[in-house]
Design goal:
2 copies of one chain form a homodimer. The first copy, chain A, is α/β, with parallel strands linked by helices. Chain A has 2 domains: 60 residues, 2-Layer Sandwich (Nucleotidyltransferase, domain 5), CATH 3.30.420.40; 115 residues, Nucleotidyltransferase, domain 5, CATH 3.30.420. In chain A, 31% of the residues lie in helices and 26% in strands. Chain A has 6 helices and 10 strands, in the order E-E-E-E-H-E-H-E-E-E-H-H-E-H-E-H. In chain A, the strands form 2 sheets. A 5-stranded mixed beta sheet of chain A has the order 3-2-1-4-5, sandwiched between helices. Chain A has a 5-stranded mixed beta sheet with strand order 8-7-6-9-10, sandwiched between helices. In chain A, helix 2 crosses helix 6. Chain A is globular. At the A-B interface, strand 7, strand 8, helix 3 and helix 4 of A face strand 7, strand 8, helix 3 and helix 4 of B.
């Protein structure tokens, strides 16, 4: 079975023995002839896929009443895959969603690692540092690199921990963030697990 | 007595009965002939002011050993003005500094309101919302505007409150942020108070 998670920048394919990404700008989905179950937050790609009968939109199989109109399908699928968790999906944005006893409690959106790096540099060249992911979260910073790293990461960390639930990390920057979220479990395949559950339940 | 706080974008003057700002790009400091006590985080302006004998750099009067090399003089002066506080200076960046029993414990730097607004818009047009400063901080969001507002503001709020100290808000965006920090005292003149204390102590 071939699954595909389509974001703003890439198609992420996962089969029984395959796992690869293709650039949204360069890849032509019509070159895939087998059946593909997909989710997409990319409107432009979604429109194209409607013309290809072998591409099956899993987003249509979801009861969206539990969520909200503009919530990304990737977040919904991740929530569907969890029972009790704070789910952190670290990509171009960092989405944080809370599930308690299978119920979606709500969630928030924080800028991703690259976006936040650019933000600090744009405020002042004096803030143009790479983030320190080995930061000591227990200590208030006394240098500029740690001052922006703490601003970006400790604020997120404190908020996430306040929900007292197991933490699941996924997305392209999950491993960077994992250094600071020592309590978290990294699950790179979380979205694909959610998609597989949907297929079993709904098809 | 005329005081001046010089940032990246403006000269902020405060006299006995005056309080006004001048744009850094357009204002010529040589047009001021009276004595001015100033602090500056603007390197280009600082260089010019060294040529003007009536402009007195208060930054030179500070014992910087308690702080760190690259810490902005505005943050240091605010810390000097407080005994027990979390000081939030909300400008192009939001600096947060902790003082306990007159001792500087450290601090961090978070992006300012305008910077963060641009960050979300740049990640995706789907995140192009104005922040909701009337957000309910006790409730996880279930709509996009609140999801980014919570991401920006609740994370900061949770971290600031974790220090269990009185909160003082200053800077150009202090009033926007104050809606969410109901526990905070807004003190727009905090830096000028710190400067005045320095003058009394050191001159």
């Amino acid at each position: 079975m071939l699954l595909c998670d389509i974001g703003n920048t890439s198609f992420h394919f996962k089969g029984d023995s395959e796992n690869y990404k293709r650039d949204v700008a360069a890849f032509n989905p019509a070159t895939i002839t087998q059946k593909v179950y997909y989710i997409s937050v990319n409107q432009a790609v979604s429109v194209k896929l409607k013309q290809l009968p072998n591409w099956i939109d899993l987003g249509k199989k979801i009861d969206k009443k539990k969520y909200y109109e503009t919530m990304g399908i990737d977040r919904i699928v991740a929530v569907e895959a969890c029972t009790n968790a704070v789910i952190i999906d670290a990509g171009s944005a960092i989405t944080v969603d809370v599930v308690r006893d299978d119920e979606f409690m709500g969630g928030f959106i924080y800028p991703g690692v690259n976006a936040m790096q650019k933000t600090y540099s744009a405020i002042s060249p004096a803030l143009e540092y790479a983030f320190n992911f080995d930061l000591d979260l227990e200590k208030l910073p006394k240098n500029s690199q740690d001052a922006i790293s703490y601003g970006f990461l400790k604020t997120l960390h404190t908020e996430v921990l306040s929900h007292n639930l197991p933490i699941v990390l996924t997305g392209g920057d999950a491993h960077k963030i994992a250094t600071l979220f020592k309590e978290a479990r990294v699950d790179e395949a979380l979205l694909f697990k959610g998609m597989q559950e949907l297929i079993v339940k709904k098809l």
